[in-house]
Amino acid sequence: MKISIIIPTFNRCQILSRLLDFLSHDTQSISSVDYEVIVVDDCSTDNTWEVVSNNFPNVKLIRGAGKNAELAKRFAIEESVGDYVVNLDDDSMPAYGWLASVRPALERGEQIVQGKIVFVDLGEKNLQDERTKKTFRTGFRFDMMPVSILYGGYRPQYLNNCHEFGCFISRDVLARVPLDDHNLIFHHLGESASFYLRATKAGYRVWFEPSVIIEHLGATTGGCVERSKKESPKRNCTPFAIGMVHNFMILARMYQPLRIPLLIPYYLLGGLYLSFKQRKNCLKYFVKGLYSGLTKPFSAPLTYNFEYNSAEVLSRKS
User: Fold this and answer.
1) Structural domain boundaries of the chain?
2) Beta bridge partner(s), residue 4
3) What's this model's pTM, rounded to 2 decimal places?
4) Residue 61 and residue 64: Cα distance in Å, rounded?
5) CA–CA distance from 121 to each of 90, 118, 129, 216, 221 (Å)?
6) pLDDT score for 318
């Protein structure tokens, strides 16, 4: 059994090097699990390409299209050869032995295994909660917003949600359920929810393995994201709200159409409330998101071409 670790990155050479150095020296994992590391440099303007190619010769390096992290992940998955694929952000840091910890679940046939993600930038209280809670709620609110899975307990269990980050997905699943969804606006929430909903519709379950711990600097620090800065999901009186509302309306149309009559007034009232509270026109963003989410045609996500070979790959073996 082999695991493919895919890492999209953009202009974060120093942070990425820390992660790659760890992956090169996690001896507990190296001795028990066969794995490959694939880095997609999404057209960085720093020296990411040179540093990775010179300092980490065992890493498979791919040049991305410079558009978004979802496309970068697609490039990496199509180049992967592992039986399972796990996506890591470049600002993450797994615990030692994380691959050895996930191996029993994979060997008994679990098709999707979610690791325990610890978001470091949420504060010490949240870190304590994440490390001590035995169980935790997952699922979706009526507005299609995923219930947080940040507070991962310490009891293995099946989940009603998952995160595309830190999630081990079998090649068989990816052949039927692509990780990305072209119907959504990238980096505006909903990508993980889309994958989970499509995976469960195809008959798969998500197993939570709390011994697989991955620390992450958090969504507010970004990664392979927009070229200026990553919008915070809490800043809803910005164009970010257009994509957010669009994505959740698309998901509702695809999987929960009976919720649409409730979602329309919900988002309109939310826009009015924010307009009153912040003394500016927030409603326009929600209206635009509703319009695009209700009118845009949608289709099944594009499957992967596992026969694809990029001309921009540096694949070296020790």
Assistant:
1) 2-224+304-314, 240-295
2) 36, 85
3) 0.86
4) 10
5) 15, 9, 14, 8, 8
6) 32
